[in-house]
């Protein structure tokens, strides 16, 4: 596995003020090194020196567009961006020249068995750096603030420290003020404090906000414009945001609400000029909840003068050039073609993140007319462009973009077989050309042409009844699976036949398991395995309706998630894709619940299972409100104090429904310091399996030094994953 990891590597540099920030890894060292170097030119000004990459490697359409652009600046329709496998600007390379080491995690980690950096925040002057560190795995962080001395390569002067807080912090308007969140006894971020750097003790810090509703967790961010600190208080179903105006110098700042909370109303926001832009599932002229979100505006003045608190959503205005209505998939009416998730504002354009046709997507919105000074229309009109690539079934995400004034948009692109790459899109050019900044290198002779991917659907008409009486509804939508395999193992076959398969599933919180490259899969693929992702209901791959709508899987329809996974497993065997006795299933955390419940429904269809930190004792945890996450989780699974939810949850809780039948060999992992799924849940489940079921063996492996996300040391993390895959190979090869 390690042979496919580039041990000494450098991330794509991210422009921020007068510097470019990046991270490095060094062979044999376990942790990252955070660095910066001066920007030697305004970012993007050297694009005329860029040279095309191998034109033969791009599609005929892209080659034509390249030729047009090079000849006379060819134009594209408003709804497309130039989809090129890229240009490459050599000035983007990180050579080490003028490098300043900001933080060497390896040095600090020497005295800790577990070491995770939560965030790194550079002060407005770039002279101070704040970073948070978790050294237990329990996700409680210490904040450290150091003075960056450009004459030093490390060991910067520590000027301030705050212990036992949340991992997210944000600077104020200058280097004197920083904002952070405190945790309550249930490990919930619930209070926001303002701290004066190097002057006040944390006991003297000013409390600005407190969230009393135990279902809501508080988070901090800053608008890219730098003017507002955003206090987000979110539960799984409801959002409320307050902003602190950093331009207000009149004493203690007052958080101003964007819109008072309404149950079921969700929104995120950013700021540009005289407007806040919101991606929200409700608007002024829609009284009922959207399953998907729309783009709205809200005047900054309405928030600052308090009228937004009084009038709420009546002040929101939908952006007409990006409406919610209008696009539907005729073959999948339950799924909108386009779904929005968040908005990022820049001085001259907007970037929207969401999904299109079931895959992650990014759009660029450029104003059709320039705003008059800092003021613009309440419903500005935009040219809309989707960042578009030819690679089928690929993932496009907005990358790290720090500078509000930037004319470049960083995006990240990858697929199951294509390693990730960071690209910059030049919003100044009408055709929006893309430039490759960083291409992930995969050693060990990896060539994406040697691998194949496919998407298959499990149609409802062939999905049957599980043996306990629960059944898939006749009108259920098809469940999509994404497959990857090594081509020369199955030459001449569009889809592999009679293969060993590792089937992965999650299916909760509306989380999307998107096609992404992972070199840790290659040892399996090179042994003839097919890697499959089951995009079961409860996830968000097909939109909010896939999660919580009429066809979704939440609350009293949660069993649909587990039924979908069972039917995907049966489909793989029924269609001959998987060999009769070589199907392994895997899930982590809530995905471990999915695996555990599916095993109880049909233990015979699976031949091996891996459950990582699995949430399997759902009743014990959900009935104890003192356990971290419990009260918040009531909006995902239901409140067991209500009879209907209690009885339904009991009917699928993995630990409460183990059968006295033959189960496949299983490996169950846990973390001693895990605050999300306590270590005793997996251990108790394995004990129950050993006492009740036959078959097995049922193995338990508890990491005594880590929490929910396994080892922080990247080499130890690889060893842990290698152990899991060795278990799979051992079980399947002996069938």
From TrEMBL:
Top-level EC class: hydrolase
Species in which this protein is naturally found: Pycnococcus provasolii
General function of this protein: Serine peptidase whose precise substrate specificity remains unclear. Does not cleave peptides after a arginine or lysine residue. Regulates trans-Golgi network morphology and sorting by regulating the membrane binding of the AP-1 complex. May play a role in the regulation of synaptic vesicle exocytosis.
Residues of the Peptidase S9 prolyl oligopeptidase catalytic domain: 516-732
Keywords (A to Z) from UniProt: Hydrolase, Protease, Serine protease
Biological processes per GO annotation: proteolysis
Domain Peptidase S9A N-terminal: 1-62, 92-286
Protein name as it appears in the record: Prolyl endopeptidase
Family label: Belongs to the peptidase S9A family.
Keyword Coiled coil carried by entry: no
Keyword Hydrolase assigned: yes
EC number: 3.4.21.-
Pfam (any one): Peptidase_S9_N
GO MF annotation list: serine-type endopeptidase activity
């Amino acid at each position: 596995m390690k042979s496919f990891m580039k041990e000494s590597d450098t991330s794509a540099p991210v422009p921020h003020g007068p510097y470019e920030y990046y991270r490095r890894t060094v062979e044999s060292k376990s942790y990252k090194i955070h660095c910066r170097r001066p920007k030697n030119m305004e970012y993007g000004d050297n694009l005329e020196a860029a040279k095309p990459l191998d034109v033969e490697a791009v599609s005929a359409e892209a080659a034509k567009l390249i030729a047009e652009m090079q000849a006379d600046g060819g134009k594209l329709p408003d709804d497309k961006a130039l989809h090129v496998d890229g240009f490459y600007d050599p000035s983007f390379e990180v050579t080490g020249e003028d490098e300043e080491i900001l933080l060497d995690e390896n040095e600090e980690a020497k005295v800790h068995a577990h070491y995770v950096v939560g965030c790194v925040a550079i002060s407005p002057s770039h002279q101070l750096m704040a970073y948070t560190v978790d050294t237990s795995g329990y996700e409680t962080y210490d904040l450290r603030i150091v003075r960056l001395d450009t004459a030093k390569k490390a060991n910067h002067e520590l000027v301030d420290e705050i212990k036992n807080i949340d991992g997210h912090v944000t600077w104020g308007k200058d280097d004197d003020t920083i904002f952070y969140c405190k945790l309550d006894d249930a490990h919930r971020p619930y209070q926001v404090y303002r701290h004066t750097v190097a002057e006040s003790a944390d006991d003297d810090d000013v409390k600005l906000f407190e969230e009393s509703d135990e279902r809501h967790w508080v988070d901090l961010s800053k608008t890219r414009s730098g003017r507002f600190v955003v206090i987000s208080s979110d539960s799984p179903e409801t959002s409320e945001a307050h902003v602190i105006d950093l331009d207000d110098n009149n004493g203690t700042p007052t958080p101003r609400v964007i819109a008072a909370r309404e149950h079921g109303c969700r929104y995120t926001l950013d700021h540009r000029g005289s407007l806040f832009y919101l991606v929200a599932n409700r608007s002024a002229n829609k009284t009922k909840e959207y399953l998907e979100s729309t783009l709205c505006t809200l005047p900054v003045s309405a928030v600052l003068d308090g009228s937004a608190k009084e009038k709420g959503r009546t002040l929101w205005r939908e952006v007409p050039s990006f409406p919610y209505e209008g696009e539907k998939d005729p073959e999948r009416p339950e799924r909108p073609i386009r779904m929005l998730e968040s908005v990022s504002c820049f001085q001259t354009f907007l970037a929207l993140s969401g999904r299109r046709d079931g895959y992650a997507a990014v759009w660029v919105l450029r104003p059709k007319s320039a705003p008059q000074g800092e003021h613009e229309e309440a419903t500005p009109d935009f040219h809309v462009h989707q960042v578009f690539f030819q690679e089928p079934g690929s993932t496009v995400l907005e990358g790290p973009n720090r500078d509000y004034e930037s004319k470049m948009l960083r995006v990240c692109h990858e697929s199951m077989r294509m390693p990730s790459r960071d690209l910059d899109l030049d919003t100044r050019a009408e055709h929006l050309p893309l430039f490759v900044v960083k291409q992930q290198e995969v050693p060990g002779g990896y060539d994406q042409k040697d691998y194949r991917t496919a998407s298959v659907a499990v149609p409802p008409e062939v999905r049957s009844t599980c043996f306990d009486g629960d059944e898939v509804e006749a009108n259920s939508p098809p469940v999509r699976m994404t497959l990857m395999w090594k081509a020369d193992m199955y030459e001449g076959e569009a889809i592999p036949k009679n293969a060993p398969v590792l089937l992965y599933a999650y299916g909760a919180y509306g989380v999307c398991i998107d096609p992404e490259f992972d070199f840790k899969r290659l040892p399996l693929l090179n042994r003839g395995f097919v890697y499959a992702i089951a995009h079961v209901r409860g996830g968000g791959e097909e939109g909010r309706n896939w999660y919580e709508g009429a066809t979704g899987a939440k609350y009293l329809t949660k069993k649909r998630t587990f039924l979908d996974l069972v039917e995907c497993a049966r489909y793989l065997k029924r269609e001959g894709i998987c060999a009769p006795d070589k199907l392994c299933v895997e899930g982590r955390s809530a995905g471990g619940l999915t695996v555990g419940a599916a095993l109880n429904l049909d233990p015979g269809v699976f031949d091996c299972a891996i459950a990582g930190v699995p949430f399997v004792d759902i009743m014990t945890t959900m009935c104890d409100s003192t356990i971290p996450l419990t009260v918040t989780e009531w909006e995902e699974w239901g409140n067991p104090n209500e009879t209907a939810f209690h009885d339904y949850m009991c009917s699928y809780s993995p630990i409460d429904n183990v059968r006295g039948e033959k189960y496949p060999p299983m490996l169950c992992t846990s973390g001693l310091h895990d605050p999300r799924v306590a270590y005793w849940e997996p251990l108790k489940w394995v004990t129950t399996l050993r006492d009740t079921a036959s078959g097995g063996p049922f193995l338990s492996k508890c990491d005594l030094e880590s929490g929910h996300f396994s080892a922080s040391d990247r080499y130890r993390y690889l060893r842990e994953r290698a152990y899991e895959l060795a278990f799979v190979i051992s079980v399947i090869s002996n069938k």
